[in-house]
Inverse folding.
């Protein structure tokens, strides 16, 4: 059986990647309605943090079984 | 009513979560072959897995919204729920109680009552716990639909049925194992989904100090205003916090509520089981940096007329639960909104799964096998576990519709805990530490303790007597009444159990070996170096607790 950390890594990797890509899209095509602090692009850097954290967990556990 | 707008990508993220948890349930089904796999996740989890699940089972979205809202209402005093109101009890469970629970190989808390006392005490607690769990499960479901309807504009019925059927799907497939897996995923989604609110709040306002400086003293300290109830937001004396919350309610919940303790039973060995609540205590202490900080940011923004931030109002009443969703709407752009909503949904569903997996275990072992079918085989019990999961979800849905037609039922949730858990803690404490406590003493002490808590609640609710008789204070506060009622119910159960035990038949000492301190050989982890023992981890946890309390005194 795959360890739980594999699944945690996978979902954070996928969702983090989607948030990052959305952030990059909004960086290039700024939306009309802006949120507070939108100028610091939280979806870009938070998406990267999630993607890297999830990716690390996923890669570290992808060959493990418990 | 304004709603949080969801874009296409937000919907995709929410959909990914639903597909993912159902997929995990399907994947784990092939590893769920025996009743021990289904009810105790095979007893093979590490302390980290069990510890995060232990914490997450308690971390429902209702708590996240409610505690952020309570912080807006009461100020930093709400942090007591996470610090003195949790950590000492979790440490006590790990160090003193877990060896008796885990080593006796019980499958549930009522199971311990059967071994230590007798069948009637087990069935009494089993029935009380099953009713409490289904009520809380249904009320949670209702609360979830309320939040989704209020803030996202979603349809009531679709919200309730979609999440209830998803939970039913994965818990029926693989029982506690899938509940634990989804609880841990929820833990990470909540941190990633909601901690960013606090970070962005600090960036907008400037610093943590500036946030605290914008609040009155009654709201921005933990203890300095607690000697006079009129001077703090919660209108409570420090003795009420220490005795009611820090001792009875906290110990009653964290050491006897099967919903959380069941996660420790899934650990692979005694050391992992003892470490479960100890590791969880560190994450519990960190949670105020999401919920309390978000509440304080909401107060600071509300006090600034230029911020444009204002809580929602329903019929002239401030909706405190709107604090967290409004902060999400304020700070989160597309994509992050989907993550924030998924974190709340995951919290609701994991809380629901926790209740249902605890219910199916107590129903199957402590009511069905104990009373209705004593000769049931293991495979029959596994089948019964799956059937009771389906039935439990259906009853929860019924309770949710009942709550919808009778909204004040929400107010009863805190009261329910003080009816069941507070007296049970007295029974457990006496039973585990004094060998001469008798089965009849425990049973009647528990019955009268539960009834007295219920009577005190009724008396205040219907004005039979003044609340100040219970709280010993001239100012009125629901929270203070909850704390003090729990304390008195515990005292009544504790005293009565001792008195009846003095005059009734004791169990032979030989039957209590392994169940009672003093009659049981205790050499847990003595072969390990001190820094690897649970006691060392417990000391670190308590030191951090003390530092946090001094820091925000």
């Amino acid at each position: 059986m795959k360890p739980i950390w594999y699944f945690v890594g996978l979902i954070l990797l996928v969702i983090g990647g989607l948030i990052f890509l959305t952030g990059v899209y909004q960086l290039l095509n700024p939306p009309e309605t802006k949120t507070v602090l939108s100028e610091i692009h939280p979806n870009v850097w938070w998406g990267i943090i999630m993607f890297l954290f999830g990716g690390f967990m996923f890669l570290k556990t992808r060959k493990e079984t418990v | 009513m304004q709603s949080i707008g969801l874009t296409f990508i937000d919907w995709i993220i929410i959909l990914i979560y639903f597909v993912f948890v159902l997929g995990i349930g399907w994947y784990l089904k092939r590893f769920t072959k025996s009743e021990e796999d289904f009810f105790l996740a095979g007893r093979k989890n590490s302390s980290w897995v069990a510890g995060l699940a232990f914490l997450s089972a308690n971390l429902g979205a209702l708590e996240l919204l409610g505690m952020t809202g309570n912080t807006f209402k009461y100020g930093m005093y709400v942090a007591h729920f996470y610090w003195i109101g949790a950590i000492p009890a979790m440490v006590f469970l790990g160090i003193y109680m877990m060896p008796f629970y885990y080593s006796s190989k019980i499958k549930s808390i009522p199971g311990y009552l059967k071994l230590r006392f007798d069948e009637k005490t087990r069935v009494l607690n089993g029935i009380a716990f099953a009713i409490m769990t289904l009520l809380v499960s249904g009320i949670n479901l209702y609360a979830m639909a309320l939040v989704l309807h209020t803030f996202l504009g979603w349809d009531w019925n679709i919200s309730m049925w979609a999440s209830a059927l998803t939970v039913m799907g994965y818990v029926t497939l693989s029982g506690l194992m899938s509940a634990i897996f989804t609880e841990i995923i929820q833990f990470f989604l909540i941190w990633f989904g909601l901690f960013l609110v606090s970070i962005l709040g600090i960036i907008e306002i400037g610093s943590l100090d500036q946030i605290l400086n914008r609040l009155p003293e009654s709201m921005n300290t933990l203890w300095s205003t607690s000697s006079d109830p009129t001077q703090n937001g919660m209108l409570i004396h420090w003795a009420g916090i220490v005795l009611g919350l820090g001792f009875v309610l906290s110990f009653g919940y964290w050491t006897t509520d099967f919903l959380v303790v069941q996660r420790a039973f899934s650990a692979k060995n005694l050391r992992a089981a003892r470490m479960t609540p100890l590791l969880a205590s560190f994450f519990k202490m960190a949670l105020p940096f999401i919920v309390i900080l978000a509440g304080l940011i909401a107060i600071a923004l509300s006090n600034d007329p230029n911020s444009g931030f204002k809580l929602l109002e329903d019929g002239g009443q401030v909706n405190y639960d709107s604090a967290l969703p409004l902060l999400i709407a304020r700070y989160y752009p597309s994509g992050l909104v989907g993550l924030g909503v998924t974190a709340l949904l995951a919290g609701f569903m994991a809380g629901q799964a926790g209740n249902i997996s605890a219910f199916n275990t107590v129903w199957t072992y402590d009511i069905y096998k104990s009373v209705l079918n004593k000769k049931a085989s293991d495979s029959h019990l596994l089948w019964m576990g799956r059937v009771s999961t389906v039935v439990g979800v259906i009853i929860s849905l019924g309770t949710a519709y009942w709550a919808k037609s009778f909204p004040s039922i929400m107010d009863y949730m805190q009261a329910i805990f003080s009816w069941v858990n507070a007296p049970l803690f007295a029974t457990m404490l006496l039973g585990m530490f004094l060998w001469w406590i008798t089965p009849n003493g425990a049973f009647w002490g528990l019955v009268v303790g539960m009834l007295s808590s219920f009577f005190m609640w009724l008396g205040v609710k219907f004005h039979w007597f003044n609340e100040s008789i219970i709280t010993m204070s001239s100012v009125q506060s629901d929270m203070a009444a909850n704390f003090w009622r729990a304390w008195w119910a515990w005292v009544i159960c504790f005293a009565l159990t001792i008195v009846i035990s003095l005059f009734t038949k004791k169990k032979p000492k030989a039957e209590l070996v392994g169940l009672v301190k003093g009659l049981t050989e205790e050499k847990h982890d003595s072969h390990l170096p001190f820094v690897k023992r649970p006691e060392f981890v417990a000391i670190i946890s308590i030191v951090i607790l003390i530092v946090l309390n001094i820091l925000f005194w």
